[in-house]
TrEMBL record:
Record has Amino-acid biosynthesis as a keyword: no
Any Pfam family: Aldedh
The entry's keywords: Oxidoreductase
GO molecular function, one term: oxidoreductase activity, acting on the aldehyde or oxo group of donors, NAD or NADP as acceptor
Active site: E271
Protein name according to UniProt: Acyl-CoA reductase-like NAD-dependent aldehyde dehydrogenase
Keyword Cell inner membrane on entry: no
Organism: Marinomonas communis
InterPro entries: Ald_DH/histidinol_DH (IPR016161), Ald_DH_C (IPR016163), Ald_DH_CS_GLU (IPR029510), Ald_DH_N (IPR016162), Aldehyde_DH_dom (IPR015590)
Family membership: Belongs to the aldehyde dehydrogenase family.
Length: 513
């Protein structure tokens, strides 16, 4: 345990009534808010303050089947898929307006359930609204192709049809942002959906349901289940009435969901883990690179698939650069998520904090060098972990290649860019990476050779709805966001046409007898 005075810890104040009143919610199936058929409730307590944040009706398998049935019937009826792109676009824009009108409530609930700083939660809801608006533009731009080069009596065309019913399974680290990377694009394409947020952070997803109907989304088009991944995941991934599963979460659960979904050849989209390197060259913009490393690893308490959890530093500057990162890390404010300037809140739950501490212990056992932190901070709920930096001499050590999902930076050194790229590529993941250098050759060489879905040059973790996001290797399958993301939720149909009289018969009376 670390003394809070040994880190830049901001203590808690008493909560106001608005901050401490628990959110109550039901399931949302076929346009109705309903209790789960088991009658059970789950409770979420704040990882920062320990108070009851929300109580949720729990869905069981029977509820999942009812939701799937509603989504299937809504899709097959054409009530959503037959709307014009313009109609769907207008509804998505109204949903965005509805979220915006409750921005503060969404952000507070998200902050209380996850423990993330309130200001960051607000930024994420603002970012999510922007994504809904971006998806609305794509609803009007979905189109196929035509082919006039098939001969004078043939025309071909491809049309993009909505894929059908989509199961969306989302995690706890960015509950509303990740939902917004999936659902508006599925809706833009004309699909219907069953959505299952993570057990710990269901609040903002179910809050969205309260906006859908008034925005004009017909009953059954979006159905929201709250409950256990194990119980609800199986029907959502295997039911023959579901056409696609989009999942964000751990690689191990993603593999299971993909295996289940493949039994009936469903389309799958997976956004999984990462062990993302930031490569620091000697000619980097020093201040900006130090700041980006600190931001990259501590943002969202490191519970971030895009976390810059590895820093690879050129050996000629390694000691000084890491000393600067240690000093800047000491300035990072940890603690009360509602206080101004706090950047790092608590970890999501006790079990997860224990796992992260287990990785730190393993690193020390393997001879890695703890430069900063490494311990819990002494505090009521006890879920705060001090910003941690570990220098490793061996890129084969556990801390260098497994996703830790906490505020833990692993530092390694390299002698030249080729070695840096080899280390960058030496994990099973390939989500994102960055390079810091003023030399364009270094930057472009790294961006071409690193196996990752996103490479940032002299910046880190920027994101725009316009730019696709997803992983190479075991970081995932498919892409979210970007112009083409709506196409992930479509099937291509080829239509071939013959013009005029058919002369070439397969069988003719003139054939030799
Ligand atoms: O994730 P899970 P957990 C990583 C991160 C973290 C680890 C464990 O390394 O430490 O995963 O987190 C649902 N069938 N990421 O255990 O279990 C679950 O209810 C279908 C990376 O919380 O993968 C939730 O809705 N679904 C990540 C979702 O899967 C199942 C974000 C994700 O939970 C299921 C979160 C099942 N059998 C964790 N079991 C990222 N890529 O950002 C669970 N779920």
């Amino acid at each position: 345990m670390m003394n809070p005075n040994d880190v830049n810890f901001v203590s808690h104040n008493a909560l106001t009534e608005a901050q401490s009143t628990p959110f109550q919610s039901k399931l949302y199936i076929n346009g109705c808010f309903c209790e789960g058929s088991s009658g059970e409730l789950s409770s979420r307590y704040s990882p920062a303050f320990g108070h009851l944040v929300g109580q949720y009706a729990q869905a069981n398998e029977a509820d999942a089947l009812t939701a799937i049935d509603a989504a299937r019937k809504a899709f097959d009826s054409g009530v959503w898929s037959d709307k014009t792109g313009a109609e769907r676009s207008n509804i998505l824009l109204k949903i965005a307006d509805g979220i915006e009108s409750q921005l503060e409530e969404f952000a507070l609930l998200e902050s209380m359930e996850t423990g993330k700083p309130l200001q960051q939660a607000q930024d994420e809801i603002v970012g999510s609204i922007d994504i809904w608006r971006y998806a609305a533009t794509l609803a009007r731009n979905l189109h196929g192709d035509t082919y006039h080069n098939l001969g004078s009596n043939k025309v071909g065309m491809t049309v993009r049809e909505p894929l059908g019913v989509v199961s969306c399974i989302t995690p706890w680290n960015f509950p509303f942002l990740i939902l917004s990377q999936k659902l508006p694009f599925a809706l833009a394409a004309g699909c219907t959906a069953i959505v299952k947020p993570a057990e710990l952070t269901s609040g903002t997803t179910i809050k969205l349901a309260m906006i859908l109907e008034s925005a004009g989304v017909p009953a059954g088009v979006v159905n929201i289940l709250i409950g256990s991944g194990r119980t609800l995941g199986a029907p959502m991934a295997t039911d023959p009435r579901v056409d696609m599963v989009t999942f964000t979460g751990s690689t191990s659960v993603g593999q299971r969901v993909a295996a289940q979904a493949s039994q009936s050849m469903k389309k799958i989209s997976m956004e999984l883990g990462g062990k993302n390197p930031q490569i620091i060259m000697p000619d980097c913009d020093w201040e900006a690179a130090v700041d980006a490393v600190v931001f990259g690893v501590y943002f969202n308490a490191g519970e971030c698939c895009n976390s810059g959890s590895r820093v690879l530093v050129h050996e000629s500057i390694a000691d000084d650069f890491l000393a600067a990162v240690v000093e800047k890390s000491k300035l990072v404010k940890v603690g009360n998520p509602l206080a101004d300037g706090v950047r790092v809140g608590p970890m999501i739950h006790e079990g997860h904090l224990d796992e992260v501490l287990g990785y730190i212990a393993k690193a020390e056992e393997q001879g890695d060098n703890l430069l900063l932190g490494g311990q819990r901070i002494e505090h009521d709920t006890g879920l705060y972990l001090a910003p941690t930096i570990i220098r490793s001499a061996n890129s084969g050590n556990v801390i260098c290649h497994e996703e830790i999902f906490g505020p833990v930076l692993t530092a390694l050194t390299f002698t030249d860019l080729d070695e840096a790229i080899a280390i960058a590529n030496s994990t099973e993941f390939g989500l994102s990476a960055s390079i810091w250098s003023k030399d364009i050759d270094n930057c472009l060489t790294a961006s071409k050779k690193i196996q990752a879905g996103t490479v940032w040059i002299n910046t880190f973790m920027d994101g725009f709805p316009e730019l696709p996001f997803g992983g190479y290797k075991q970081s995932g399958l498919g892409r979210e966001l970007g112009r083409l993301s709506v196409e992930e939720y479509t099937e291509i149909k080829t239509i071939q046409m013959h013009i005029g009289e058919r002369t070439a018969m397969w069988v003719s009376s003139a054939d030799p007898s």
